[in-house]
């Protein structure tokens, strides 16, 4: 007999490729069953947005979920991209020209310049289609939907460009890959930093969040427990990394690099 309590969230649609879950009135999670990140639909009284949209190959399934709740693609006013990884943003080009595309300025720069390494294009085998970012977001920006007011929080760590969105009144935390149910960490990629990750998690811990809407996995109504576990794990990861560098003798490994820099400087002097 399982002691896991039943989910407080209602599944509206469930297929072999995706699920549509009602998180709270007018907020829907689209959970894809491949490697794509979750997409979120927030239907406001003034405007409607999506937060992340998954891989381009999932776009037909995303349309099926939107149709199920009576929202046509041309009714989406804005698509907010949590960071630059293509499992979150691959389908964004389908919305270009009819919805505003928004991302943190660091993510926007990578996306606009088509930085394939940072965007993990080879990992997800996405088509090399440009995604134009119309709005460059910063810490403290407010996305006002009428009945939802989402504050942009700069939460680097997974990458240098990650943002979370928080509705203070409703306690909704859209944390992408910064925080996941059960305290699972999204990993540190490229420009990311474990120290930044910890600082971002500490910020999320101070919020009065009630529902965690993350980049992967289920919805969670225990975000305070999730962030506490994530902080413990991230500190453990930081300690493991320090031990790894000590074992590798970082000074010895960096010496050839530093010698190459010194040699280049000598050439410049000549």
Structure description:
The model has no long low-confidence stretch (mean pLDDT 90). The chain is globular. With 270 residues, the protein is of the alpha/beta class. The chain has a single domain, classed as Metallo-beta-lactamase, Chain A (4-Layer Sandwich), CATH 3.60.15. α6 packs antiparallel against α7. Strands 1-2-3-4-5-6-7-8 form an eight-stranded mixed β-sheet. The longest helix is centred in the C-terminal third of the chain and has 26 residues. It contains eight helices and 13 strands.
What descriptors fit this protein?
23% strand, 8 helices, 270 residues, 13 strands, alpha/beta
In short:
The chain has 270 residues and is an alpha/beta fold. It has helices at 59-68, 86-89, 105-112, 116-119, 121-124, 194-205, 223-248, 250-269, and strands at 10-14, 18-24, 27-32, 39-43, 48-51, 78-81, 100-104, 135-137, 142-144, 149-154, 163-167, 172-176, 211-214. The chain contains 8 helices and 13 strands.
């Amino acid at each position: 007999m399982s002691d896991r309590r039943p989910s407080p969230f209602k599944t509206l649609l469930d297929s072999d490729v995706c699920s549509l879950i009602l998180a709270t009135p007018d907020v829907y999670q689209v959970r894809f069953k491949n490697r794509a990140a979750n997409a979120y639909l927030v239907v406001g009284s003034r405007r409607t947005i999506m937060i992340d949209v998954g891989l381009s190959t999932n776009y037909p399934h995303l349309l099926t979920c939107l149709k199920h709740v009576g929202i046509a693609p041309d009714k989406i006013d804005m698509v907010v991209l949590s960071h630059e990884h293509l499992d979150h943003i691959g389908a964004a080009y389908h919305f270009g020209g009819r919805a505003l595309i928004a991302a943190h300025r660091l993510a926007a720069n990578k996306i606009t310049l088509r930085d394939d390494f940072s965007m993990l294009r080879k990992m997800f085998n996405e088509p090399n289609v440009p995604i134009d970012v119309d709005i460059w977001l910063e810490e403290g920006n407010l996305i006002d939907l009428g009945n939802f007011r989402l504050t942009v929080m700069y939460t680097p760590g997974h990458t240098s460009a990650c943002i979370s969105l928080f509705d203070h009144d409703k306690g909704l935390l859209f944390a992408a890959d910064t925080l996941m149910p059960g305290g699972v960490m999204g990993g540190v990629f490229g420009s990311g930093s474990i120290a930044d990750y910890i600082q971002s998690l500490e910020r999320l811990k101070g919020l009065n969040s009630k529902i965690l809407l993350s980049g992967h996995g289920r919805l969670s109504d225990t975000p305070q427990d999730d962030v506490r576990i994530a902080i413990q794990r991230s500190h453990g990861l930081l300690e493991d990394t320090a031990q790894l560098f000590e074992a590798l003798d970082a000074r010895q490994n960096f010496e050839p690099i530093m010698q190459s820099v010194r040699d280049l400087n000598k050439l410049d002097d000549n």
